[in-house]
Please model this.
Amino acid sequence: MQTDQPFVQAIDLVVRFPVKTKQGTKYITPVDGVSFAVHTGEVLALVGESGSGKSTLGRALVRFNEPAAGTIFVDGNDVTHVRGQRDLGTLRRQIQMVFQDPFGSLNPVRSVGQHLSALVRKHQGLRGDALRQQTLQLLETVGLSPASEMILKYPHELSGGQRQRVAIARALAVKPRFIVADEPISMLDVSIRADILKLLNRLKREFDLGYVYITHDLASAKYFGDRMMVLYAGQVMETGTSAEIIASPAHPYTRLLLSSTSGAWSRDTKLNTSVEAPDLFEGRRGCPFANRCPISTEVCLRDRPVLRAVGANHAAACHHADEAITI
Model:
């Protein structure tokens, strides 16, 4: 159930990393002034190519990456620079992360039961039979049956889909209110991706969870995301409801992503763009997509565009958004 106050909010968030060059140390900004808000029970899909800043942004929300500027609020509290085991532990009981690689995120020498029971014991204070029953219940909740057998298995004995379900159960073990799901289906067989998305959707309803869903797949973003935010070079290109962005993309980059999506409405309209990598260095000018954009002009190279409304609850950061709709 949504309230007026968003559960997770980022304001002008910047994440930067040092890079050594011949001229000395410079900084890249894979997240450059990003703002958004997500309510309880809502899914915001972050969409973009590899290197667009999606995962860096997601990791900043759970404080795996330290923001260089901007503010992060979780449940109304400023958590931008929280430190220490106690405060970080409090934050991560509220917001958990499910990683892309379900094998790499699990300890190969610990059984499924050990992965889950340690968290249940620490965060729910259960012991003995109550601990075992709660661990079994978590496995049943994510569709791993019979739970009494699954609890004894090790990660190498599971399929990719089963391992990802264990990773999701592990996130649920601390009873979070929000999950950052970082490409949770990209390393799975196509045949089971839909099942994992259906599971995440069911958990959203059952536990009133909010999500930031990170993906490069617009089809899954449309299915799972209530709203969509398109990122390129760490900046927001377009934002709005998933349905409206898919139906009426207003940024040339969004149209490029759609034209590359299997079964897309614009499959036969391939935009003429370069494959040049974006400039991520601090102090860059103009629109980061200008060097690939088929309609860029001098103003695009000179001035960074701001998000402006192109419809109800729909905005794009493009100097030529009206023209982009017609290309």
